[in-house]
Specification:
630 residues, 3 domains, 3-stranded antiparallel beta sheet, 24 helices
Length: 630
């Protein structure tokens, strides 16, 4: 029997051991270092192949490879049990390939960079498909139709940003991590079941109320449409149809929080790609068919929204099942779910003030000349590309580490993680601001100027883009600072800062929309989050002491100096374009060359000036492209 249990050549080795030990008392045959103990000249057993490991928010964990002696093959399953035997029980010998191995905790910078890279890569794909979606919409529909749809989609879209990219996820991850650390895996699974059940019931109730109250909701933030009855009624009808999207996006937010807590970042970030593809497909396939049957083609976008929401949630079902976090939803009173609900209200205000600014911008823009809503929408889409691909990716990757540090009371680790996230955000937000401001006209012309989107619209959009781009660092700061408060389970301080930002934003809108029209609204959108970030830093320092921001400021100056070098590299290339021609092939190639030249110049200058992230980027590229020895 023993000879059948050992790996290759086990029959031969087992026979030698048996003959050498006849009549001797039975002893351990294999040492834990995979050598035979009974004979000095015995053959060394080859060690099992190392298990494929994955970092987890619980810190040092033990993982098990697939155990050939058990029916359940669990490659890469997390295991926090004793370090004796394999994952499947203490009776299995340590020589089993399923024997657990201790995984060392990765440094903060490495873990944060890896998680941000996964989120950023998936988000980049989703944002690029989002750009294609906007290009299709700009070419297919006129200004009246896009004004109506963007206004109708404002409420569902803002709720998506609050739930899927902000409040619910930011609150859920710390609470869920606390349950896992203090209570274990089984209570954490029950918490997920209660969160899904309670969330589904609440989302259905809000959806029903939204459908019933749609006329008054649209009237509240787009009263400028009432002067055109047909425009207003179409906006109300589209809003009613898209309210069920809230159910899907809310469930996606819960799934996203659970997956992020387990450091599974890809599918939550990639699911937005399915939404974009759904809207593109609906526009191409359904718009013409609806128009031929006497229905306004803009309804195709509403159909794409609902189908895309369903695909978003469906894409996260399999990842949840893989980590055994797909229980049947339960509608029950759960103390941790109640805690999430209490924290969610202030969190919506704290993280959602930027989205509330966008909502109010729709209100003010509806009072301005036709096209103002569209100009601001496309500007926001452009600045959201660096925000989502880099800033939000960094914040999403940092939240599990912040939550773990807070749950363990490790304030120094929390500070280092926060400062590191700010430095990484600065490395990408500074060139984003400079690039969008310098290349505003080329970017808008290449992406949108075709079909119904004219050269005049390009100029208006570029004027607003320059000002909105200045708010990217402020948004980055808010996105990285607010999760620190939520990791500390403090939701009141962000609310105070948000109230200050809201008052400033409304005042600037009222003061600037008269002389500057939609450009004044763009300037107000940029100023509000900047002030909010500075106020949050002051209050966070009062709460946990000195933050160690001197290192972040030192890196910021290096990033700014490198950005000026980037301007000198991309402007001469951009001067070769004929931007009045719109998105021609010549202009597309010139813009691509300008972006490549500017990006290469920025990375090189940042490396020369000693920016840590540039050096880390270069080191990663060298390691990836280095030829491995044969």
């Amino acid at each position: 029997m023993f000879a059948m249990d050992v790996p290759r050549h086990g029959l031969f080795i087992g026979k030698r051991i048996f003959l050498a030990n006849r009549g001797a008392p039975r002893r351990g045959l294999w040492r834990t270092d995979h050598t035979v103990t009974d004979r000095p000249d015995a053959r060394v057993r080859p060690p099992p192949r190392p298990a494929r490991t994955r970092p987890d928010v619980l810190g040092p964990v033990e993982t098990a490879a697939a155990c050939p002696r058990c029916p359940a093959r669990t490659r890469g399953v997390q295991w926090t049990g004793p370090a004796t035997g394999c994952r499947h029980g203490p009776n299995h010998p340590r020589t089993c390939p399923g024997s657990p191995r201790l995984v060392s905790v990765r440094p903060v910078a490495s873990s944060l960079a890896r998680g941000a890279g996964v989120v950023g890569g998936a988000t980049l794909v989703s944002r690029l498909t989002g750009m294609v979606r906007d290009m299709v919409i700009a070419a297919w529909f006129d200004r009246m139709a896009t004004d109506v749809f963007f206004t109708a989609f404002t409420i569902p879209n803002v709720l998506r940003r609050l739930l899927g990219e902000g409040s619910l996820t930011s609150v859920l991850v710390p609470v869920y991590t606390e349950v896992r650390v203090q209570q274990g895996e089984a209570p954490a699974k029950r918490f997920v079941a209660a969160a899904l059940g309670t969330g589904l019931a609440a989302l259905l109730g809000v959806t029903v109320l939204g459908v019933l109250l749609s006329p008054w909701i649209v009237m509240a933030y787009a009263w400028g449409f009432q002067s055109e009855p047909g425009k207003f009624s179409l906006c109300v009808a589209l809003t009613r149809m898209m309210w069920p999207y809230l159910v899907f996006v809310g469930l996606c937010a819960i799934a996203m929080g659970v997956l992020n807590a387990h450091r599974r970042f890809f599918w939550p970030a990639f699911s937005q790609t399915l939404f974009n593809l759904s809207m593109i497909g609906a526009t191409i396939l359904a718009a013409g068919w609806l128009e031929s049957h006497g229905v306004h083609p803009i309804w195709s976008l509403a159909i794409g929204v609902l189908v895309g929401g369903a695909l978003q949630f469906a894409s996260q079902v399999v990842p949840l099942r893989r980590i055994d976090r797909l229980p049947r939803p339960r509608l029950e009173r759960h103390p941790e779910v109640t805690k999430v609900a209490k924290l969610l209200g202030p969190s919506v205000i704290g993280l959602g003030i930027y989205q509330l600014d966008i909502l109010l911008s729709r209100l003010f823009a509806s009072l301005l000349p036709e096209g103002s809503v569209t100009y601001l929408y496309y500007c926001m889409r452009l600045v959201e590309l660096p925000q989502a691909v880099f800033v939000m990716a960094i914040a999403a990757a940092a939240l599990p580490d912040l939550s773990l540090a807070s749950a363990k009371g490790e304030t120094d680790v929390l500070k280092r993680t926060y400062v590191r996230s700010l430095t990484m955000s600065s490395f990408v937000s500074v060139p984003s601001v400079v690039g969008l401001a310098v290349l505003a006209v080329p970017v808008v012309a290449v992406l949108f100027q075709r079909g119904a989107f004219t050269g005049e619209m390009t100029g208006h959009t570029a004027d607003a883009l320059i000002w909105i781009a200045l708010g990217i660092p402020g948004v980055a700061g808010v996105r990285n600072t607010s999760p620190v408060f939520y990791a500390l389970q403090d939701t009141k301080t962000p609310v105070k800062m948000s109230a200050l930002s809201l008052v400033l934003y409304v005042g600037l809108c009222l003061a600037l929309m008269g002389p500057w029209k939609h450009v004044g609204l763009a300037a107000a959108i940029a100023a509000a989050p900047t002030v909010q970030f500075l106020a949050q830093v002051v209050f966070l320092r009062r709460k946990i002491g000195a933050l160690g921001l001197r290192a972040a400021l030192d890196q910021l100056w290096r990033h700014l100096a490198a950005a000026w070098v980037m301007v000198g590299a991309c402007l001469p290339v951009a001067s070769l374009g004929r931007w009045s021609d719109g998105g021609s092939l010549h202009n597309t190639l010139v813009l691509a060359a300008a972006l490549l030249a500017g990006g290469a110049a920025y990375a090189t200058a940042a490396w020369i000036f000693g920016a840590e992230d540039a050096r880390a980027l270069l080191h990663g590229l060298r390691r990836r492209f280095r030829r491995r020895p044969a």
